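Narrative summary of target 7.
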Amino acid sequence: MAKIKTIYACQQCGSQSPKWLGRCPDCGAWNSLVEEQAPTSGPPSAALRTSTNAPVPLNEISPNEAGERIVTGISELDRVLGSGIFRGSAILLAGEPGIGKSTLSLQMAIALQESDQKVLYVSGEESLTQIRNRAQRLAPEGSELLVLSETNLENIAYRISTESPAVVIIDSIQAIYNPALSGAPGNVAQVRECATRLFQLTKENQISLLLIGHVTKEGSVAGPKILEHLVDVVVNFEGNIEQHRILRTVKNRFGAANELGIFEMFSDGLREVKDPSGVFIDRERRPAVGSAVVCSYEGTRPLLIEVQALVGRSNYGTPQRIVSGFNQRRLSLILAIMEKYCRLSFGVHDVFVKVAGGLHLDDPGIDMGVAAALYSSFLEKPMLPDAVYLGELGLGGEVRAISFSEKRLMESQRLGFKRVFLPEGNAPEAETAARLTIGLTQIGKIDELLYPPSE
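Modeled conformation, tokenized:
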């Protein structure tokens, strides 16, 4: 009997090594290499030579063959996916435990079933009774949704082939295992092989696939990185201590990336937030020290969000720099720019910056708003409560132009703000300017922000 060859695979990145190592040479994770059976390779299959698939000229493919959307009926979810589920696509939904991944997927499955789309909901973590109890809160009148409690990949593949659903939901990919492979469910080899098999099965039959995935303690998707490359859409489910839940697109082959969907969690499931800007700002704002409103462009829509800053005398040798919802290195850049060009010394002060509402913002167009909040807290002088601050800061102290400025201006006006501070390079076009009733103050250098015009 031939000896079974083994390898050591990293549980974080999937890197393989012929011997055990304490630290992965690729991703640097410690104690992440686990022994697995090496895959065997044989001669090429005859099916490769007799395949009926043939190249097709692009201009001969009809729009229907290129794919169509399946509308879920949940508008915030459809927005994040790019106007609905692209038929035949594979979607990965990842998030923290208890964030609401199963609740959202079950709500979507029930809504699709009610719109005459055949859906197969496969759960590897819950029994049929548990799913029924949760569905009772979401759809008390009941549903004809097909539900399967199974973890064996072969049984799942058989049911998909016999039922021929339009959409398949797997909850979760880390709970599914292939009996032909060694190792427990959730390890790199099992996740990789199960996801690849399901992906091939759904692509061949034009079935839309939704995989629910776990995340690691660092916040990344658990399993091999190839899982994120394999699927068409990657969606992260984020949340905060309140009832709000944020759905963010990380990758989308059929729509805009970095799109946001906002939900609220209630006892009867997740409800959509129709006006997200109203969630992250106080409509009746009063002058407050260390507070400024910015307009961040997320995906395909602008969001008005409050940024808060606290600057205080440090009690330690090294001052603290703590951020929530903002990049810490970008904060260091903004502080260095303000020290050089605004003559403000932060060297002996602790600095804390927070984005209200639990959002994480990477848009460079909010730099001037962060600087305004820091300036307000440093001098204990409130900024204008009815103003919005737009602009990216350059290392020379200049305020650089930003993208989608006109949409940001219209959103600021819609929510009742009276003034917008924006870069000189973002003067609105004549057509947009004619519709604006909001006051515009253009700024070329960051030090001009210290002397706003009086009312």
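The chain has 13 helices and 23 strands.
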